[in-house]
Amino acid sequence: MEKIVSYFYVLYCKDTSFYGGYTVDLARREKEHNTGVGAKYTKPEMRRPVKMIYAQAFDTRSQATKAEYAFKKKSRKKKEEFLKIKGVKFPINLSQTCVVASRLKNVKEAELNEKSKEF
């Protein structure tokens, strides 16, 4: 049985704000946000389209939601610092690819990148 990977992700919104969330399917979740059904925060058209700029894989949902909570508590400046440290390029270009990192045990970064290639 294949293990379900839980992700903490960050979206860059049209109004230049950041949104942090949790999912098990990055591509589906970004699509949901862009159609206005992802979350109350990204529902208003002023925030869409959104671009997923960072995602981090975890072994458990609990770990991913803790990362989401910690991100949401940060100030704008601290969020930008966090994203820069994680490899997100600033200023953000909507054509840049999403940075995908891993906190998975026994999974190589290359395997994770292969799994999220369609994203």
TrEMBL record:
<keyword id="KW-0378">Hydrolase</keyword>
<dbReference type="Pfam" id="PF01541">
    <property type="entry name" value="GIY-YIG"/>
</dbReference>
<comment type="similarity">
    <text>Belongs to the UPF0213 family.</text>
</comment>
<dbReference type="GO" id="GO:0004519">
    <property type="term" value="F:endonuclease activity"/>
</dbReference>
<feature type="domain" description="GIY-YIG">
    <location>
        <begin position="4"/>
        <end position="81"/>
    </location>
</feature>
<keyword id="KW-0255">Endonuclease</keyword>
<dbReference type="InterPro" id="IPR000305">
    <property type="entry name" value="GIY-YIG_endonuc"/>
</dbReference>
<protein>
    <submittedName>
        <fullName>Putative endonuclease</fullName>
    </submittedName>
</protein>
<keyword id="KW-0540">Nuclease</keyword>
<dbReference type="InterPro" id="IPR050190">
    <property type="entry name" value="UPF0213_domain"/>
</dbReference>
<dbReference type="InterPro" id="IPR035901">
    <property type="entry name" value="GIY-YIG_endonuc_sf"/>
</dbReference>
